[in-house]
Amino acid sequence: MAADQRGKAATLALRRRLLSNSCRLFFPEDPIKIVRGQGQYMYDEQGAEYIDCINNVAHVGHCHPLVVRAAHEQNQVLNTNSRYLHDNIVDYAQRLSETLPEKLCVFYFLNSGSEANDLALRLARQYTGHWDVVVLDHAYHGHLSSLIDISPYKFRDLDGQKEWVHVAPLPDTYRGPYREDHPNPAVAYASEVKRVVSSAQEKGRKIAAFFAESLPSVGGQIIPPAGYFPEVAGHIRRAGGVFVADEIQVGFGRVGKHFWAFQLQGEDFVPDIVTMGKSIGNGHPVACVATTQAVARAFEATGVEYFNTFGGSPVSCAVGLAVLDVLEKEQLQAHAACVGSFLMELLGQQKAKHPILGDIRGVGLFIGVDLIKDEATRMPATEEADYVVSRLKENYILLSTDGPGRNVLKFKPPMCFSLDNARYVVAKLDAILTDMEEKVRSCETLRLHS
Ligand SMILES: Cc1ncc(COP(=O)(O)O)c(C=O)c1O
């Protein structure tokens, strides 16, 4: 039977029988069966069209024809490993280098964000001769054992924090210890990293790296105050460590103003290692690590070969090149800046109307809407966020939540998300919130009168 002729219930039953329950579904009570994607839209088996507000992997749009064609054409000619000379891999490294600061000029190609972060960890340890890692609270950096260890979002539910991992507070100026009224939150949050480093050093530990997403997404679509990364990098480098910017969710023009999200931190700020994934291949498994000559030379000095069977294959590189071509041709970075600020403006107008909208933060097409119980406590409105997401789904809009309180609606749509999509989604959100407030009011009235 063709897979798209199978009914949703039959697919679900098979999945329950054959796949682990650890592999979760969106909307587990009523999962969606998606059979087709195009641009910023996904279609279920009945042909219903959903607006995809969350898939930052389908960066230039689901199934972009130029990306699909690039993969197909290269697949017809050759797909092999990177031990042969091939133009795609060098052309791709060259094109990526043109987007990055000059110092980040050595490239490794891999298949997933997790592989990229794991290699970054190896590079950092080899270069520094140190072992320990400082991470931000609530961070997620991947599913390999090494990365679960540096992902508080995961290890807090497992066997806890390893002695070589040190956690600094999220630079969250909305809910963290230093807020929007602090005179210099960048320095204050960076001092927290310094404190964490000093306390590790007092125990005889040595710092190899600081890992952070350039914009912490799992942490709740956080925008670190500008200047925070350079300050942190100073503390980390003085301790002998390197700065790793995880751009897996937020790179490739998503932030609009810049191609890389770390560039929001200041024109002169250059991480020692940058990791890329997800959007880099528009759905094809591609990932990359970019670093400096110095770090790469230290890694080479071991004499041990770095080999990755699929990483940097002619097909992966053809796909990566096509993604860069589409970004340029369709001017998607500028588009993200324009649509993102329009969406922020529309959401901002809603804030005046709906007290549950505590904070609206974002840059380009990376936006978080922080739902709160009340302004005084800023307590996360977790159940309400969940309810809003399920009502949006009934309206064929796919959105999800993030953050430690699972109360932040996260927008990170394919970059072709349009002004019309923004208008439509915000109008639906407005209607759902109005209806929700109405229901709460009638319950309160009932309670008063009973
Ligand atoms: C910030 C970040 N880093 C790393 C990863 C791991 O990437 P992958 O799932 O491709 O291994 C993820 C995945 O969600 C991520 O969000």
UniProtKB/TrEMBL annotation:
<dbReference type="GO" id="GO:0005739">
    <property type="term" value="C:mitochondrion"/>
</dbReference>
<dbReference type="InterPro" id="IPR015424">
    <property type="entry name" value="PyrdxlP-dep_Trfase"/>
</dbReference>
<comment type="similarity">
    <text>Belongs to the class-III pyridoxal-phosphate-dependent aminotransferase family.</text>
</comment>
<dbReference type="InterPro" id="IPR015422">
    <property type="entry name" value="PyrdxlP-dep_Trfase_small"/>
</dbReference>
<dbReference type="InterPro" id="IPR049704">
    <property type="entry name" value="Aminotrans_3_PPA_site"/>
</dbReference>
<dbReference type="GO" id="GO:0030170">
    <property type="term" value="F:pyridoxal phosphate binding"/>
</dbReference>
<dbReference type="GO" id="GO:0008483">
    <property type="term" value="F:transaminase activity"/>
</dbReference>
<dbReference type="GO" id="GO:0016829">
    <property type="term" value="F:lyase activity"/>
</dbReference>
<dbReference type="InterPro" id="IPR005814">
    <property type="entry name" value="Aminotrans_3"/>
</dbReference>
<keyword id="KW-0456">Lyase</keyword>
<dbReference type="Pfam" id="PF00202">
    <property type="entry name" value="Aminotran_3"/>
</dbReference>
<dbReference type="InterPro" id="IPR015421">
    <property type="entry name" value="PyrdxlP-dep_Trfase_major"/>
</dbReference>
<protein>
    <recommendedName>
        <fullName>5-phosphohydroxy-L-lysine phospho-lyase</fullName>
    </recommendedName>
</protein>
<keyword id="KW-0663">Pyridoxal phosphate</keyword>
